[in-house]
Amino acid sequence: MSPTTHKGDWTTYHRDGARSGVAPHVTPVGKLAVAWRAHLDGAVYGEPLTVGDSVFVATENDSIYSLDRHTGDTKWRAHVGTPVPLSELPCGNIDPLGITGTPVIDRASKRIFAVAETTGSHHVLVGIDLATGRVEVRRDLPTPDGHPRFDQQRPALALAHGRVYVSFGGLFGDCGTYIGSVVGVATSGRGPTVTYRVPTANNGAIWATGGPVITSKGNLLISVGNGAATSDSQPYDGSDSVVELSPGLRRLGFFAPRSWAQDNAGDLDLGSLTPALTSHGRVLIAGKRGTAYLLDVDHLGGIGGALAERQLCRGFGTPAHRGDIVYLPCVDGGLAAVETSGDDIRVLWRGPADGKGSPTIGAGTVWVASWGTGTLYALDARTGAVREQLDTDATLPHFVSPSLSRNLVLLGTTDGVVAITH
Question: The pTM is what?
């Protein structure tokens, strides 16, 4: 029997294809307390997903779990490969390296899809039955750059047009030869793939945690890291950018700052943050340089074509957004609530300085965690005031992001999942 669905289900990173991070049917905020902890076989870097009374998570030990939402008890576990120990990688910072990107759930096929990194430098797409844990799809996924040993699958998977979209960047340290890419695979696991490869000679990682953003037209938005071209005298190489792709992964448009060559030379690229797509067709992005750019989703602007820009903060991870307001995860100064109406960029408030994780929104509250202290904050969405906070007594991975499920907040930890009631 398949898990019973609920209007509050969380089936993809930040809940929807637009990566809004907004959850309906969330109970009002009350006193925070740990409801349960699930100690699993590895670290959980992705967001926990939910369908009905089941919580689905993937670990760096190449396992996917279905847990009871009320107790955290294991319903089933599918172990799909042998992860790669850090000692066998040319560089990196995850040990072992297994499933890092947040999986995605396909209601039509009643499967959860994930990509496992396995020994021998393989990236394997698996599709697993939600009810039984049976592996029904298994496909080796060669990376388009031909250098799988240097490629890492960190962004969340996206689901659209009957395909699972998988993004690749490099390992921490940018060692070796790799080129950022996206691959689209039919949910059946069969047939030809569609691919996009950043047109740079090296690097151009697609690595921000949110993965592809699906626009109202069904196209994909991605952000791209620093590339090989580091001088204005060199042709622009598609790096340090926000890119719009068709469902078949043809490039439709892009934005890059005028400082793209200097950004590349100084590792100050836009690719550290997933683009935020507002409800009025605007895109906000702020990467490692700390400059925020406001773009028109229908005309991204090419080189230097932003509608507005201002120095704001260094963004890492994935924003949440509702209407014209974007809640931006900043590693300097904490969360920033940013108003984008009138084609302007205005900071409304800043959150706690250590609240650097990727936020989500529910019941008029912005939820954000600190991967440094393990603290979960519930912030008033209008003012940024701390409504509640809790020391989770857990070690949280970088760029941690909470999932919301009615009265629960779910966080991946370095050894499983913690569920907090409110």
Answer: 0.97
pLDDT reported for residue 8: 87
**Coil, strand, or helix at residue 51?**
strand
Which pair of structure tokens corresponds to residue 93? 């910072």
Dist CA 352 CA 155 (whole Å): 26
User: CB atoms < 10 A from the CB of 22, how many?
Assistant: 18
Report pLDDT for 420.
98
The pLDDT tens digits for 307-319 are 999 999 999 999 9
Q: Quick one: how many helices (H) and strands (E) in the chain?
A: 1, 34
Gap between the Cα atoms of 377 and 245, Å rounded: 35
Tokens representing 123 are 């990236």
Q: What angle do CA 200, 201, 202 make, to 5 degrees?
A: 90
| DSSP assignment of 364-387 | TEEEEE-TTT-EEEEEETTT--EE
Please give the average per-residue pLDDT across 128-147, as a whole number: 97
What DSSP designation does 270 have?
Answer: G
What region does 121 belong to: left with phi over 0, alpha with psi -120 to 50, or beta?
Answer: left
Q: How far from 145 is each of 127, 149, 180, 313, CA to CA, in Å?
A: 24, 11, 8, 32
- Dist. CA 385–CA 53, nearest whole Å: 32
Summarize the chain as % helix, strand, coil (round to 5). 5, 40, 55
Query: What is the pLDDT averaged over residues 120-142?
Result: 97
| Cβ partners under 8 Å of residue 395, min gap 6 | 374, 413, 414, 415
The answer to whether 359 and 368 have CB atoms below 8 angstroms apart is yes
Question: Residue 166's pLDDT is what?
Answer: 98
